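Friendly challenge for the regulars: who can give me the C-alpha cells for this chain first? No prize, just bragging rights.
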Amino acid sequence: MAATATPDYYKTLGVPRTASADEIKKAFRKLARTHHPDAGGDEAKFKEINEAYEVLSDDKKRQLYDQYGTANENHIPWGGAGTQGFNYEDIFGGSGGSGGSGGTYTYTTGSGFNGSWADILESIRHGEGAFGTDWEFGNFGKSKNQRGQDLNVVLDITFDEAFHGTTKRVSVRIPGKQEADTIDVKVPAGAREGGRLRYKGKGGLGADGGQAGDLLITTHITEHPYYTRDKADVVLDMPVNIAEAALGAKVVVPAPDGTKVRVKVPAGTQDGTVLTIKGKGAPDLKKKGSFGNLKIKVHVKIPDALNDAQKKALEDFQAATEEEVRPW
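First reply, four minutes later:
Bragging rights claimed.
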C-alpha cells in the first residue's frame, strides 16, 4: 500500500514558509472561527487546520517537517539530511528521545517508540552494564527481581473533551510484549494541560519476578478558537466597537458549557477590562462540585475604515470633547 503524502501545512493555513509563530497562530484562529463545527463549519476541514497548527506551532515538529516533509520521526529515512557520520550520541543521546531519568520510556499516542537511551549510554560509560548495576558477575544477563519501567503516554484531547470529560481507548506498546496492550482511559471533567493519570502495574514488565511498572497518561489539550484555560477558569476574548465601549452594551456570548450568557458591558469600558461570570468555568478538580469562572477580556476594536456617517459622528464627538486624555 502506498504511503499517504503529508499535506502542505503552510498551504492549509494560508501562510508562507517564513511565517512567524505569531502569524501562524493568527492564521489558525481566523480559519478555526470559520470552520469549527460549533460555528457550523466542516469537521474534516477543521481537523486539517488543527493538524497543520499542531505541527507548525511546535518548533521541533516544524523543524522536522521543513527538513523532511513530515513531523513523524518514525517516517524520517536514514541517510537523510543531517544523518551522515552519526555517532552514539546521535542515536542514544539527549536528541534521540524525550524520556526522563530513571529509565522511563516516553512516547505519544499514534507514534512509535521514542524513549530516552541517554541513561543506558551513561550506565555503559560508568561500567554499570546497559541497564544498571544489578547484574551478577559471571552470570551476565540475569537480573535480580527488578521492577518494570514506567511508561509515559501523551494523550491528545480537545478542549471540549477536557471540559466535559471523556473516555479514550489507548493502545500501549509494552517492551518485551509482542502485542500492544489496550486500556480505556477515563479523562475527568475539568482535566488540565499536563495533567497526569497513573495506572499501577500497567507499565513495563518486571524482570525475574519483579513487579510491573506504572503507566502514566499525560493530557495535552489542543487549542480552541475561542477559549483558553487558566486552571479551572476559562478565558474568552470579546471584541466590542467604540460605541459599545463608550456607551455600554449587552452582548450575548457562548459559554464553554454550551449555554449562552448575556454580558453587560458598562459604559466607559476600557480596552483590556476583564468581566467575570462566576461558576461558568470548568469543573474544579481540587474542589469537587465547584466550577471556575468565565473571564471575558474586552478588546475595543478600532475600525480600519470609516464611512461618511461614522466619520462625521466622530468629528462631532471630537469637537464636543474637552477632556484631555494625555498627561503631558
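The CA atoms of residues 100 and 153 lie 13 Å apart. DSSP finds nine helices and twelve strands in the chain. Your move, everyone else.
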